[in-house]
């Protein structure tokens, strides 16, 4: 391959899983690709500013800058119902929440939470917090590995729930809309798409190979990537996800954008512009 690709990654289990084969065999690919790890909102900024060629990015970021990105076809991080990783822990019943502490490492999940609260007629105030505690909020949102850990602590271990309510936002979204949710897309910088088309096409095939390997070796891979989390929690989370981007996911994404427009999170529902492969 004549040109290097700079590929965005995150520390979340749901990215470690599809990238597992690539990273395990990185010696075979390090002349072709370089990984850069950050959280999805930060990756979005880096692809937007042409510092990274392609990355898994919060789907709401595409809707805010559709003119700057192309979507890698066939891939997403989606789910219909519970994910076990986007968890709202509340000291109060849902309808009584007046303030929420938000993480700084999410964009789509925060947008989804704000929509859910608006649909329920809840006018909550929000505060960005890097703490794992509630600070002075009624509720706190945990996502990714922090969400999995929060579910383990407050839901799976009933003796430590402390009376808190554990709410899986994927489940709440499905109850409200009847549809799934597309949390992330692999987005490509438009300049990179022009200058590195063949390399991106090659990476798309490699990503599919890597993803298929992880599913074929599901138990071994999830055991290895679980880190400090319980393997049952990681397996539940990964099993809840779809990495496809077909008609069902397209409908779910456009539905999300319709809600985001209605509640003034985005100005318009964007056209989905895909890289032609």
Low-confidence runs: 158-162
**Helix fraction bin:** 40-55%
Structural class: alpha/beta
Query: Biggest β-sheet: count, sense, barrel?
Result: 5 strands, mixed
Judging by the overall fold, what is the CATH architecture of the largest domain?
A: 3-Layer(aba) Sandwich
Quickly count the helices: 11
The rounded Rg comes to: 18 Å
Tell me, rounded to a whole number, the average pLDDT.
Answer: 92
Number of domain modules: 2
Distance from N terminus to C terminus (CA atoms, Å) equals 17 Å
What kind of assembly state do the chains in view correspond to?
Answer: single chain
CATH class of the largest domain: Alpha Beta
Instruction: Name the shape in a single word.
Output: globular
Task: Briefly note the CATH topology name of the largest domain.
Answer: D-Maltodextrin-Binding Protein, domain 2
Record field, number of beta strands: 11
* Helix-strand sequence: EHEHEHEEEHEEHEHEHHHHEH
Strand order of the largest sheet: 7-6-8-5-9
| Amount of beta strand | 15-25%
What's the CATH H-level homologous superfamily of the largest domain?
Answer: Periplasmic binding protein-like II
Can you walk through the features of this model?
- The structure is a single chain.
- With 277 residues, the chain is of the alpha/beta class.
- The chain folds into two domains: 156 residues, 3-Layer(aba) Sandwich (D-Maltodextrin-Binding Protein, domain 2); 91 residues, 3-Layer(aba) Sandwich (D-Maltodextrin-Binding Protein, domain 2), CATH 3.40.190.10.
- Helix content is 44%, strand content 21%.
- The strands form three sheets. The chain has a five-stranded mixed beta sheet with strand order 7-6-8-5-9. The chain has a four-stranded antiparallel beta sheet with strand order 3-10-4-11.
- Helix 4 links the parallel strand 6 and strand 7.
- Helix 1 crosses helix 8 and helix 9 crosses helix 10.
- It is globular, with a radius of gyration of 18 Å.
């Amino acid at each position: 391959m004549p040109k290097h690709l700079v590929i965005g990654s995150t520390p979340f289990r749901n990215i470690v899983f599809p990238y597992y084969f690539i990273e395990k065999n990185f010696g075979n690919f390090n002349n072709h690709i370089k990984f850069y790890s950050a959280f999805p909102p930060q990756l979005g900024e880096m692809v937007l500013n042409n510092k990274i060629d392609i990355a898994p990015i919060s789907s709401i970021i595409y809707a805010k800058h559709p003119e700057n990105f192309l979507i890698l076809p066939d891939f997403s991080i989606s789910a219909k119902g519970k994910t076990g990783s986007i968890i709202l822990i509340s000291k109060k019943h849902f309808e009584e929440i007046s303030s929420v502490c938000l993480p700084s490492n999410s964009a789509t999940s925060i947008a989804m939470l704000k929509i859910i609260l608006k649909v329920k007629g809840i006018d909550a105030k929000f505060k960005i917090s890097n703490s794992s505690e509630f600070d002075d909020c009624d509720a706190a949102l945990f996502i990714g590995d922090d969400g999995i850990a929060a579910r383990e602590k407050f839901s799976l271990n009933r003796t430590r729930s402390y009376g808190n309510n554990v709410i899986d936002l994927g489940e709440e979204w499905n109850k409200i809309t009847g549809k799934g949710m597309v949390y992330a897309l692999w987005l490509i910088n438009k300049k990179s798409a022009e200058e590195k088309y063949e390399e991106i096409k090659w990476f798309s095939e490699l990503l599919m190979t890597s993803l298929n390997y992880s599913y074929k070796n599901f138990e071994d891979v999830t055991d290895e990537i679980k880190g400090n989390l319980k393997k049952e929690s990681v397996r539940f989370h990964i099993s809840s996800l779809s990495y496809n981007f077909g008609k069902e996911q397209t409908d779910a994404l456009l539905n999300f954008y319709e809600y985001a427009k209605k509640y003034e999170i985005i100005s318009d529902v964007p056209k989905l512009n895909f890289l032609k492969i």
